[in-house]
Amino acid sequence: LMSQERFDDALAAFREVLARQPDNLDALGGTADSLLALQRWPEAITTYEHYLTLNPGNTAARFNLGLALFEVDRFADSAAAFQAVLAQDPSNVGDYVTLANAVGSLGRYG
């Protein structure tokens, strides 16, 4: 469903799994990714934060958390998320650009 960009349907399916297994990592990650795709930023943030308490080493989830935080103007938190990703994978040039955007926004809006 995600690959077909049927994010509402995917979200419903992931939530069905979570109703039975609240800490299912695949369903939590899928829920968070669906919410991000649907631009439901606050819900995505909450879900990524919960996911990351169970799987703190997942850099993709932490990166996506940073994106969602950026969208709600939480630039310092966004920058912290991107810095954590870079601490785990310093070779990822794209993450440096994203971090620079978040830090730059801090100067303008923070």
Observed structural traits:
110 residues; globular
Number of helices in the DSSP assignment? 6
Major sheet: none
Whole-number average pLDDT?
Answer: 87
Shape: globular
Approximate strand percentage: under 5%
For the termini, the CA-CA separation is 38 Å
Q: Helix and strand string, N-terminal first? A: HHHHHH
Strand tally is 0
**Helix-and-strand structural type:** mainly alpha
If you compute it from the alpha carbons, what radius of gyration comes out, rounded to the nearest whole angstrom?
A: 14 Å
Show unreliable segments. none
Helix content: over 70%
Structure in words:
This protein starts with 6 loop residues before the first helix and ends with a helix. The chain contains 6 helices and no strands. The protein has helices spanning 7-20, 25-37, 41-54, 59-71, 75-88, 93-109. Helix 2 (25-37) packs antiparallel against helix 3 (41-54). The model has no long low-confidence stretch (mean pLDDT 87).
Summarize the structure.
With 110 residues, the chain is mostly helical. The protein has helices at residues 7-20, 25-37, 41-54, 59-71, 75-88, 93-109. The protein contains 6 helices and no strands.
Secondary-structure map:
Blueprint lengths: L6 H14 L4 H13 L3 H14 L4 H13 L3 H14 L4 H17 L1
Helix pairs in contact: 1-2, 2-3, 3-4, 4-5, 5-6
